[in-house]
Amino acid sequence: MDRDVVMHRMTERFQELYGRALDALERAPEGRWIADSEWAFRDAFQQLMTESYQTAVQSRIDAQPTSRDAAFSPSPRRGRGAGRDASQG
Known about the structure:
This protein is mainly α. It contains three helices and no strands. Helix 1 runs antiparallel to helix 2 (33-63). It is elongated. The N and C termini lie far apart (45 Å). The model has no long low-confidence stretch (mean pLDDT 86).
């Protein structure tokens, strides 16, 4: 994993998303600053949290020498109850 690349990518993304939230605050009329901007900040940080975790994990996967093996499809499901202990209902 190239930590510097991930940090740079997510710093740029933070600046973009935070800028949008600040735009919402600046557009909000007097007396509605919180009501008209609170969700913009919440959404920006929610998006940043999701993207930063996904980016970090994907970077770690990509750095593995067996990264092609890490991307797999689960096995097809076998018959109903397969793999369960017969004593379980």
